[in-house]
Design brief:
By secondary structure, the chain is an alpha/beta fold. It has a single domain, classed as 3-Layer(aba) Sandwich (Rossmann fold). The protein has a seven-stranded mixed beta sheet, with helices on both faces. Helix 3 links the parallel strand 1 and strand 2. The chain starts with a helix and ends with a strand. The mean pLDDT is about 95.
């Protein structure tokens, strides 16, 4: 993979856009399906909980998430207009039922009141939090006291094998992520790290792992 291709892939992973957006959304679904479901399993979901997902992409897994407990209510945000449009289309029935809303927004300035959500989720977006304290602080603000944040990602040991990560990706081990979240008033960490089937990285098969970190928002 040459440098131009690496930059293009990195840009599309950060924010799918233009003619390639739909294809990138589908590629991310295929590559991240297991990670998404492991992140769901790491969440504490009670009936009627209000969920915020940061970076839901094309919304392919919203229905699966809502099936995990009765009467869940879901809000998804993304700053890619193409992904927001695709997610709204994919979840039209759930939106019409009032259980789902999907909007365009930026993570550094969430358009919600303090204490709106019981739980927050984000999968494979933390690499792109250019201002980590600002994003984590906003997630903390919109969570109720002792609300839960769950992050799904590839750990540093996996990410550093991909050639495109030199283009603006922040990478974390479990310990590094917990430290960063702790500095933003999250605590009570639960960590799960598991192997996945290998994936292609620039024409080479590399080992893959899922890292899921859950934490509580301190009051």
């Amino acid at each position: 993979m040459d440098e131009k291709t690496q930059r293009f892939v990195a840009e599309q992973l950060r924010k799918p856009s233009g003619a390639f957006a739909a294809e990138m959304g589908e590629r991310m679904n295929a590559g991240n399906r297991l990670l998404n479901f492991r992140a769901f399993a790491g969440m504490t979901l009670t009936p009627g909980a209000h969920i915020l997902e940061l970076g839901m992409g094309n919304g392919a897994f919203v229905r699966d998430l809502l099936a995990l407990a009765p009467d869940l209510v879901y809000t998804g945000i993304d700053y890619s207009p193409e992904m927001v449009d695709a997610a709204n289309l994919a979840n039209k029935g759930l939106i019409e039922s009032g259980r789902v809303r999907i909007i365009e927004a930026v993570a550094e300035k969430l358009p919600f009141d303090a204490g709106t959500f019981d739980v927050a989720l984000s999968v494979n977006t933390v690499y792109f939090w250019d201002d980590f304290p600002a994003v984590a602080g906003e997630l903390h603000r919109v969570l109720r006291r002792d609300g839960e944040l769950t992050l799904g990602l590839r750990p540093r040991s996996v990410m550093q094998q991909y050639p495109f990560v030199q283009n603006g990706f922040a990478m974390f081990s479990a310990a590094e992520l917990c430290q960063a979240l702790g500095e933003c008033d999250f605590s009570d960490f639960r960590i799960s790290e598991e192997e996945e089937p290998s994936q292609d990285a620039g024409g080479e098969e590399v080992p893959v792992r899922s890292l899921v970190v859950s934490a509580r928002a301190r009051g």
